[in-house]
Design goal:
Layout: E1 3-9, H1 22-29, E2 33-39, E3 52-53, E4 63-64, H2 66-79, E5 84-94, H3 97-103, E6 108-113, E7 129-132, H4 142-153, E8 186-187, E9 190-191, H5 201-219, H6 221-226, H7 231-241
Parallel strand pairs: 1-2, 1-6, 5-6, 5-7
Antiparallel strand pairs: 3-4, 8-9
This protein binds ligand 4GX.
Length: 259
């Protein structure tokens, strides 16, 4: 087993099908990853198995109680001391590919999924790291946990096919992907760029790197600022910046009037 995920949640059923389809399903079958859910409700001690309560000081909604969370985390940790505990919350560190890479080196992640207005502040003392998957509000941490599991799992050696390495991804060198085409060569008059049909591999490679740079410049200049470009890529960027053919780069305005 290369990597184990334990998910602490009030809705374990949410994790049954999505993570067992396709590539992740294969990885689970192969024993490369293991995903287990722990129902926080099983760690209540009262007859009615209450997991939430009204906030002290008043206010809207409910807060997840600290004791069931503490007992659930202690239970998982007692079986595996190397476990690294993560709380998914909009207040956490922004999740990105670098963070996914760092987490993929850990043998055991424990993911706490909050519901309602969040967890009692004292539950945070059981957490090693808080992570946000983006600046928007979900109804709970479960979908965020699934995003993290997906992005981390595909970095585990053997999870992607042998001919398909995660290191080839555009984000590996922090550029957006170049445009891809497959058959037919002519779709309603829109043709595949000639260079891709040429069989000239160095010309194809150059075209792809130029397109990746154009697209990144136009759509995500913030990524380009962070990217460590090779001298050749810097040259391509200069060319593009000097205005040699900057078309739409596949960008369409969502507000554009539909024809
Ligand atoms: N990236 N959510 C956490 C519960 C909550 C409410 C208030 C703290 C304060 C999210 C995200 C996310 C929804 C998970 C609210 N926790 N998680 N949950 N964005 O939106 O990770």
């Amino acid at each position: 087993m290369r990597m184990k995920f334990d998910v602490l949640t009030l809705f374990p059923n949410m994790f049954s099908s999505p993570l067992r389809e396709s590539i992740l399903g294969k990885a689970v079958e192969k024993g490369l990853i293991q995903i287990q859910t722990v129902n926080i409700r099983n760690f209540t001690l009262d007859k009615h198995q209450v997991v939430d309560d009204a906030p002290y000081g008043g206010g809207q909604g409910m807060v997840m109680k600290v004791e069931p969370i503490a007992r659930a985390i202690e239970s998982v940790k007692s079986q595996n001391r190397s476990a690294w505990t993560i709380y998914l919350t909009p207040q956490g560190k922004p999740f990105d590919q670098d963070l996914a890479k760092r987490l993929s080196t850990r043998p055991h992640l424990v993911l706490l999924c909050g519901r309602y207005e969040g967890v009692d502040e004292r539950a945070r003392e059981f957490i090693d790291e808080e992570i946000s998957i983006g600046d928007y509000v979900l109804t709970g941490g479960e979908l965020a946990a699934m995003v993290l599991i997906d992005a981390v799992s595909r970095l585990i050696p053997g999870v992607l096919g042998s001919d398909r390495s995660a290191e080839e991804d555009s984000f590996f060198n922090s550029l957006l992907e170049y445009p891809q085409y497959t058959r037919p060569v002519d779709f309603r008059g829109r043709r595949v760029p000639e260079v891709l049909l040429s069989g000239n591999h160095s010309a194809i490679s150059l075209w792809r790197r130029r397109e990746a740079i154009k697209r990144t410049l136009l759509r995500r200049p913030d990524l380009l600022a962070k990217a460590s470009l090779t001298d050749e890529e810097k040259g391509l960027l200069e060319e593009v910046l000097q205005g040699k053919s900057i078309d739409g780069c596949g960008l369409r305005n969502a507000d554009e009037e539909q024809k």
